Amino acid sequence: MPNRLFLTLTASALLACGCASSRSLSASWEDMTANGAIDDRLDNDESFEFKDVDLTVFEGRVLLTGTVASAAEQRRLVEHALASDHVVQVIDETVISPRTTTAQGLTDARIDTTIRTRLTASGKVRASDVKIAVSNGSVYLLGVTRDRDSLEKMISTARTTPRVRQVVSHVIYMDATGEAL
Asked: How far apart are CA 50 and CA 74, in angstroms?
């Protein structure tokens, strides 16, 4: 019974997102499927702990952020992401470093919330067109845009947010038909 409720809520959320978004329902579903498959692979890998890694999936592009303990762990992480269905590209932005402190994690969460709020309030960037990941003060943007003004708004909003160390954009240009430019 809990599975049925979960599936119903997930389907409802996807429909709501699909109606309010320029993204297709199938693309959103494929991204969720890819994210779940990668999470399962990481959880089942007993040779490494991927506790400080975040996955962000958008249009089949997987952004990996956070910290890993070694180059071997970093390689294995990428292998797991590449082995999953619906993945067309893996962008590895993880760093070999000690795990993020709780204080830094809270700062990163505040940065993320501030950027999302400011972008939404600006009215110039649709929330459905960009995903944001923050790790150790570095902001990573993943998504699509149809014009330079939107991209510049995303980047300048992130750059002018307190405690941001750097902004890395993985936003691509798409024309009205959805083809990459």
From this structure: 9
